[in-house]
Amino acid sequence: MDYVATGSNVKVLAKAIHSLSRIGEELYFESTGRWLALRTVNSSRSAFACFHLCPLFFQRFHTPQGDSFRCKMPIKSVQAVFKSLSSLEKTVEKCRIEWKPEQSQLTFTLHCKMCSVLGLLKTHNLSFQDCESLQAVFDKERSPNVLRAQPRLLVDTVLHFPPSLEEVTLSVTSDRMWLKNHVEDESDQSQAMMTELYLSSEEFEDFVVTLANQHHFCLKELSAPTAPPPDDFMCDAHGLIPHCYGTSEIAGPSTQINQPPRSTHAPTPPNHRLFSCFSLSSSQFRSLFFGSVLPTPSQGTSQTLQGQDVLASDSEDEGSP
Amino acid sequence: MKFRSKMIDVGCLNHFTRVVNTITKLNKTCVLRLTPDNLYFVLSGKVANGGVSMWCELLQVNFFDEYQIEGVSPDANEICLEVAPENLSRALKTAQNAKSVKIKLTKKHCPCLTLAAELPSLSSVSRVVTHDIPVDVIPRRLWHDYKEPSMPDFDVSIYLPPLKTMKNVVDRMKNLSNFLVIEANLSGEMNLKIETDLVSVTTHFKDLGNPPWGDDASQSRSQSRDPAAMAHARLDIKKLLQFLMGQQVNPSKAMCNIVHKRIVHLIFLHEDVSLQYFIPAVA
């Protein structure tokens, strides 16, 4: 496997990796003949993000016939390859990623331009671990709610909340979307400033709400795709359209905590999901957030919550996003 | 108790925000007094503040297009709230290009100052961001703590040197000593001095000018005073620096009154805002 990205796409690649580092600690690589996927999931399995890079993104996209390849490594190691974003654009002409299965390494080679005739090659050999395909099980088609907007809208929205803020509640009704900060602790409520922002449906490119509901989730993860990297995605690649799909497949009681429990045996994330997807002309970024849905008055408490382990599916089929 | 107000002018909004940002840099909490004509941000000199006190007065008509207040009672038509200025600062920060900003007193889970900004949007319907800032209502019996400070019986009053210069000087001095002596006379001369075992540094300023207070009491006092005689006070350098660094705009007038060995009273005047800061002297 041998991929080469050139020019401004090197910076896009770097930003993708930095963006993913805000969510998870391990970077999952997966490659088929059709694309290269960079994925991550956070430690509590409540947020998932994925970049799909198509062959068009690369100058060279060589996957050995019939070979698909999968590995994971600490995201910090990969970040170290693309250290300084500002100097990347000026100095790096080309980035080559090669898979070296014999040494269990992925080799990143940066070709740097210098003033003189002699170039500079920076080679990073990163050891990887074998892994299973990291998938999020989510059916876009079954989402009762679909919101699509320009990324600027998301960026402007997130700005009103302090970066240190932990949790937000996203609510939708047929003509509006609300975002407000969520304070769990009783005592905090009297101290904390509560911020609420609402956007009318007219601000979205698509606003289809068939099920009015609310989600809690962690703001840091929502802002990962909206923090500086995607702003530049707008400049570097046209057609960046974030889509937000909200679903509540089984409306359960909202007694669960906002972050799924950390112990491995405990029930897993609630199956109420918010899925957002950003498309670029030559690549795609998707992220998935889990949150708890707050009950509407009509829901009884007798409904039981059906938990399912929605991540770490073994499926190799990229049928569902 | 009722309070409703609205700002629609961008310039007023920016100016108000800068004032709030200045207050934010001075202390974590302060008292906001609302009267029919004015808003006051007050810090009373308590041990917790290190004895510094502050009085910031804004003329409401110069900021708000709408302003309605119903105070605690008809004879005490004002409202006194304790608030964290940082919250107000944060709420105002993202509202700088708002079409309008409404500030009102509300009761949510606790008494709040609610700031609602109507923001420009991509559609015909505006975006509205609302911030509920929790406040504590200060009962009338404690209002005496937050009265307008009286002008101290100063020995010398002098105009300050340019703010930027003074900030730089004091900032460098803080690395050498924790205390600074400020001294001035009625001939427009001011010195900033620090002294340690190893080093003493003095910065001299001349031709600053002395404000003509024209008040009977101080005039007679200043007439009898030797114009070259210095009045001085020794201050905690951090307190002076904190005040100087917090200033967001150059004031149109900046003055300093010194009560010999007792207190330094700084007065910054802008068009619509006046700010007074009292720093007690240390031994």
How would you describe what is shown here?
The complex is a heterodimer of chains A (321) and B (283). Chain A is α+β, with helices and mostly antiparallel strands and 321 residues long. Chain A folds into 2 domains: 2-130, Proliferating Cell Nuclear Antigen, CATH 3.70.10; 138-231 and 273-293, Proliferating Cell Nuclear Antigen (Box), CATH 3.70.10.10. Chain A is built from 7 helices and 18 strands. Chain A has helices at 8-21, 75-81, 85-91, 151-158, 186-191, 219-226, 228-236, and strands at residues 2-6, 26-31, 36-41, 47-53, 60-62, 69-74, 92-100, 105-112, 120-127, 145-148, 167-172, 176-182, 194-200, 206-209, 213-218, 241-248, 272-279, 283-290. In chain A, the strands form 3 sheets. A 9-stranded antiparallel β-sheet of chain A has the order 6-2-3-4-18-17-16-10-14. A 5-stranded antiparallel β-sheet of chain A has the order 5-1-7-8-9. In chain A, strands 13-12-11-15 form a 4-stranded antiparallel β-sheet. In chain A, a hairpin with a 4-residue loop joins strand 7 and strand 8 (105-112). In chain A, helix 4 (151-158) packs across helix 6 (219-226). The longest helix of chain A has 14 residues, at 8-21. Chain A is elongated. In chain B, strand 13 (190-195) and strand 14 (200-205) form a beta hairpin. In chain B, strands 10-6-2-3-4-18-17-16-11 form a 9-stranded antiparallel β-sheet. Chain B starts with a strand and ends with a strand. In chain B, helix 3 packs antiparallel against helix 5. Helices cover 19% and strands 39% of the residues of chain B. With 283 residues, chain B is an alpha+beta fold. The chains are: A alpha+beta (321), B alpha+beta (283). At the A-B interface, helix 5 and strand 13 of A face helix 2 and strand 9 of B.
